[in-house]
Amino acid sequence: MIEVEVKVRADHSKIRPVLMEMGASKIGVEEQSDVYFAAPYRDFAKTDEALRIRSLGGHSVLTYKGPKLDKVSKTRVEIETPVDGTATAKIFHSLGFLEAGAVRKKRDIFRAGEIIVCLDAVEGLGEFLEVELDVEDKKDLESSRAELFKFLSQFGLSEKDSIRTSYLEMVLEKRN
Ligand code: ATP
Ligand code: CA
Ligand code: CA
């Protein structure tokens, strides 16, 4: 699966009324607690990959993300599977993987047609908006990305507002 994703900084109180007006439906609220891992043999910050255990509502999901595929969005291969978070972390630690950092956020999730809209309140960082389309085929990347930017234009947002820095990088930058 390829996630086609655009992230922007956004005041949620300005976004919510527009979402309501366009008839977007709320599909969930998640308290996400993410731990990112660093491999002993490869610097994921340099290779632009990610290895993460996400804990939410009593269960955990393991995620691999590949390098970003374009210059304007956060489009990339994403592989996810449910796991036992505690056991998986123990396995990683045993193999010499270190924790690179943690990100905690509250995510309000909406659906507007095919587009998944996330209102993220990230601990220590503030409010963000992420919009996402998942595609199977690389040939659909460009049209999906265009669709996301067209969607964002309804909020007065454009390509120049797109942030490609990850929450983890922002958390780490703030810490240093
Ligand atoms: P998702 O969209 O899957 O819910 P998210 O929105 O919580 O994730 P993002 O900021 O979109 O978080 O993506 C996580 C990011 O963390 C990835 O872009 C990845 O490249 C980055 N990352 C992972 N490991 C490292 C590392 N060691 N150093 C710097 N960045 C990393
Ligand atoms: Ca995503
Ligand atoms: Ca994201």
Can you walk me through this structure?
By secondary structure, this protein is α+β, with helices and mostly antiparallel strands. The protein has a single domain (2-175), classed as Hypothetical Protein Pfu-838710-001. The protein has helices at 12-21, 44-47, 85-94, 141-153, 167-175, and strands at 2-9, 25-38, 50-56, 59-65, 76-83, 98-112, 115-122, 126-135. It has an 8-stranded antiparallel beta barrel with strand order 1-5-4-3-2-6-7-8, surrounded by 4 helices. A hairpin with a 3-residue loop joins strand 7 (115-122) and strand 8. 20% of the residues are buried. The structure holds adenosine-5'-triphosphate and calcium ion (2 copies). One calcium ion (CA) binds next to strand 1. Its EC number is 4.6.1.1. InterPro entries: Adenylyl_cyclase_CyaB, CYTH-like_dom_sf, CYTH_domain. GO terms for molecular function: adenylate cyclase activity.
